[in-house]
Design goal:
This protein is mainly α. It has 2 domains: 82 residues, Helix-hairpin-Helix base-excision DNA repair enzymes (C-terminal) (Endonuclease Iii, domain 2); 112 residues, Orthogonal Bundle (Endonuclease III, domain 1). It contains 14 helices and no strands.
């Protein structure tokens, strides 16, 4: 059809492209890529439109359960945190406690190797005290700060024998009196080893909870207090192991795998600048 004077030769092609894409989307088909003049404008408009629809509201107390249920279904495809596996294998509070000390600022692979080597030699407080500090260092190397951790572990063993009859206490406040035990370790022991409600907050739990806008905190210590107020109690025990595995594999600190994330459409992506 010949163009009238003053008409643009591009406008009809853009309108026709919009019409074709609309019909194909309505039919559930993938739109064909555009080409030629005007294609860039149309694709940019579509991209902006789709991005606006991907922005999710903040995760709240009444919606976090849905997010966690979806993650639980996807979790078998991820590698479980090494401390969760260790606790599941033996359910020994002492081994869980020492394993947590070993894991601080250490990769899971190194923690697993060191823990297996140490526990093969000694798996009770009294047996560990038969080791010298040098022997302890050699057994737990190459975990981070292995010299300091060797000294801390031996002191924990003495405290357990002197003050708790050689048994790991099952209360957070008692655990906090042990040398080298902070809130993260104490919460992990009571949840993983004793099955008691507690929220263990590490860097993954802190980061992802804020990325969801479930809380707004600056430090993991403040995150624990905030999560106790907004996270339903029935999710406390599983929250750490679930988010640690999720954070290590999908929801990583820099450039998270949003394209692979099972809850991407429920996530407001607070602080995410670039994703894959």
């Amino acid at each position: 059809m010949p163009l009238a004077k003053g008409d643009s030769p591009i406008r009809p092609r853009i309108d026709e492209a919009h019409s074709r894409r609309t019909r194909r989307r309505a039919a559930g088909l993938k739109a064909k890529p555009l080409s030629g003049s005007g294609a860039t404008v149309v694709k940019l408009a579509d991209a902006v439109h789709e991005d606006l629809h991907e922005i999710a509201p903040p995760v709240r107390r009444n919606t976090v359960g849905r997010v966690l249920r979806i993650l639980c279904k996807a979790a078998p495809e991820w590698n479980a945190p090494v401390l969760t596996l260790m606790a599941a294998e033996r359910r020994d509070p002492f081994l869980t406690l020492i394993g947590c000390i070993l894991s601080l600022r250490t990769r899971d692979q190194a923690t697993a190797i060191a823990a297996q080597r140490l526990f093969a030699r000694a798996d009770t407080p009294s047996r560990m005290l038969e080791l010298s500090q040098k022997e302890m260092q050699e057994l737990i190397y190459p975990v981070g700060f292995y010299r300091t951790k060797a000294r801390v572990i031996l002191q924990i063993c003495r405290d357990l024998l002197d003050r708790f009859d050689g048994k790991v206490p099952n209360r957070i406040n008692d655990l906090l009196t042990l040398n080298g035990v902070g809130r993260k370790t104490a919460n992990l022991v009571v949840t993983e080893a004793f099955g008691k409600p507690g929220i263990c907050v590490d860097t993954h739990v802190h980061r992802i909870s804020n990325r969801w806008s479930l809380i707004k905190t600056i430090t993991p210590e403040k995150s624990e207090t905030a999560l106790r107020e907004v996270l339903p109690r029935r999710y406390w025990i599983e929250y750490n192991s679930l988010l640690v595995a999720f954070g290590q594999t999908i929801c990583q600190p820099v450039s998270p795998w949003c394209s692979r994330c099972p809850v991407s459409r429920l996530c407001p992506r607070i602080g995410v600048v670039r994703s894959r």
